[in-house]
Amino acid sequence: MSAGTLYLIPVPLGAGSAPETVLPSPVLERIRPLSHFVVENAKSARAFLKAVGTAQPLQELQLAELNEHTPPDALERLLQPLRAGQDMGLVSEAGCPAVADPGADLVALAQREGIRVVPLVGPSSLLLSLMASGLNGQRFAFHGYLPAKEPERQKALRDLEAESRKRRQTQIFIETPYRNRQMLESLLQACQPSTRITIATDLTLPREMVLTRSVGQWKKQTPPDIERRPTVFLLLA
Amino acid sequence: MSAGTLYLIPVPLGAGSAPETVLPSPVLERIRPLSHFVVENAKSARAFLKAVGTAQPLQELQLAELNEHTPPDALERLLQPLRAGQDMGLVSEAGCPAVADPGADLVALAQREGIRVVPLVGPSSLLLSLMASGLNGQRFAFHGYLPAKEPERQKALRDLEAESRKRRQTQIFIETPYRNRQMLESLLQACQPSTRITIATDLTLPREMVLTRSVGQWKKQTPPDIERRPTVFLLLA
After folding, report:
1. Strands B170-174, B62-65: parallel, antiparallel or unpaired by DSSP?
2. Domain check: are B232 and B145 in the same one?
3. Which of B21, B138, B140 faces A24 most closely, judged by CB atoms?
4. pTM for the predicted model, two decimal places
């Protein structure tokens, strides 16, 4: 018996967004017949799968959770349906699975076992923000979360700025939404006036906003309202 | 009069692929009413727009080219329709515009003038390959093309491997398709046996293949046929 395929399923960036607004229709068609899923959060994954309209009734789907609480030795077991020949979907909380979320470990294990892995097209806040930033798209680096506390944060930002200047590399990072305002303040304190900073907020959502300004320009204007709104930060020195 | 909006339009990764296979339907709806485009290559952009089915006849669309032959001082003029209140689409040759293509300069100029920039969801070979690699998706860097000649190439690969080890950072790069085989050979010579290397070929196409193996494993097996097939390379030490 041959192993199943692991499909990597992107989900909308805002809770409540309809899947068809951000997923191509062949991707929706791929998801519908699946009955086994590994998900970051069962409740929101069920809401997503309900909106997609799976072939099997929602209560008959097999959902296993994989998140920061999952012990590493539990990963093995999550692949069992694939080994038994079932196709399986990996669903993240928002955006693309295995990028900035715990799904990568499951994909690594699948790759190690020679299981076929198929990534499906969907929204990625990192990529959309990079596209719309106008910053260097030929060289860029994503760093996840930076230190939350000072003076570590200002130091991290100055290091990123120096590296950006040296390599002509766009630096991308994220913050917990309720600390977005503080992050922007830290950026404006830490960086040189000529450094360009992009704020990419609520991507693909009705209030989407992607603004690139130099630090000097940002300082002169009223800061945009980004508090508690999902935001990607980018800088290019 | 208010300025138009610059839409960043992704296109399929393989020539001849139908747009609806990789673009969500609201993205197709966004493209259809547009009549002004900046494109990397007029011929392939026309084929794409024909397949999308624009509201206006193909021969009435305004297509301006932006590619490596465009002089920097010509960029200004390309924004003219936006300043005059027209919406405009930026279309790359494959995948997402302004990521690893010359469109970023146009987006930068639009941002500088305060023109609204809206990135649309579509396929990105970089992001799809990262998702399916199982390598670190929390920290990664894209480097574009590496040096084509030895010994510069082996040195570049060893530097990337050292950096990957130091930062736990996935390193992503591309190669001209007819040099893919050589790139894989260089990788296997330059890197440590335990370093994982992903080969992501023909993404979203019928012959798609994403394989992650350690250098030691790659050396033991027949190399996959990647010559002249679009491929993204990833490594994690």
Report:
1. unpaired
2. yes
3. B21
4. 0.96
